[in-house]
């Protein structure tokens, strides 16, 4: 099996949300193969269907001063920040070709990110009851998904080198007692996003046992 890969660079959230829904419907209708979208978002806060706006802990005026919009969306989970320097991935895949089990799928996403971190000799881990990936006591990747007729959308946000101060605007994923971290903070040196994309593709290819092929213009 193979997935098609779309690399979008830095894009606004609403544009990509609309694209996700378009590809989702095409996948439901079996008009396209499984797809991975990789991108960075301009700064934005999203609130999942299990979320609470109270976890946005600053005023709208402060958000406006940063140019940060807020979107309430259909993925699972609570409040999440997206921004440049963070690799966001949206796998739009038909779970009927893998396993019709959303919890299994969430664990597979975590496993792919843990494998990615291992390429940098970083030990990623799960925390019981808290979806995502952690390094020590700090969270490096948030995960929130939605499923329509067993086709997935939304996905993961992996902190490579974002402005970590922006996470202070929210209680990330509703968590108040833990901090977030990034790959560059842990490593102590910069990494190119192109390198990160290659390594995350490798990790997903291995975990899902698929070939991921980039679509060219």
What does this structure look like?
The chain is α/β, with parallel strands linked by helices. The chain has a single domain (2-214), classed as BirA Bifunctional Protein, domain 2, CATH 3.30.930.10. Helix content is 28%, strand content 33%. It is built from five helices and twelve strands. The strands form two sheets. Strands 1, 2, 6, 7, 8, 9, 10, 11 and 12 form a nine-stranded mixed sheet that branches. Strands 4-3-5 form a three-stranded mixed sheet, with no helix packed on it. α3 (102-118) crosses α5 (193-208). The longest helix has 17 residues, at 102-118.
What would a concise description of this structure say?
This protein has 217 residues and is α/β, with parallel strands linked by helices. It is built from five helices and twelve strands.
């Amino acid at each position: 099996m193979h997935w098609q890969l779309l690399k979008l660079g830095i894009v606004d959230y609403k544009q990509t949300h609309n694209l996700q829904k378009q590809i989702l419907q095409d996948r439901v209708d079996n008009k396209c193969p499984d797809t991975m979208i990789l991108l960075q978002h301009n700064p934005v806060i999203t609130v999942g269907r299990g979320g609470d706006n109270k976890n946005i802990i600053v005023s709208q005026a402060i958000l406006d001063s940063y140019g940060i919009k807020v979107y309430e969306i259909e993925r699972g989970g609570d409040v999440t920040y997206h921004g440049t320097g963070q690799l966001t991935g949206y796998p739009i895949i038909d779970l009927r070709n893998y396993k019709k089990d959303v919890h299994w799928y969430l664990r597979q996403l975590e496993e792919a990110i843990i494998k990615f971190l291992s390429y940098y000799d970083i030990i990623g881990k799960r925390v019981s009851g808290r979806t995502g990936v952690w390094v020590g006591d700090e969270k490096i990747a948030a995960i929130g998904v939605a499923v329509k007729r067993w086709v997935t959308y939304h996905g993961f946000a992996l902190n490579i080198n974002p402005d970590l101060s922006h996470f202070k605007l929210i209680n990330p994923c509703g968590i108040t007692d833990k901090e977030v971290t990034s790959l560059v903070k842990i490593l102590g040196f910069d990494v190119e996003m192109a390198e990160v994309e290659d390594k995350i593709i490798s990790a997903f290819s291995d975990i899902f046992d698929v070939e991921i092929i980039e679509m060219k213009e």
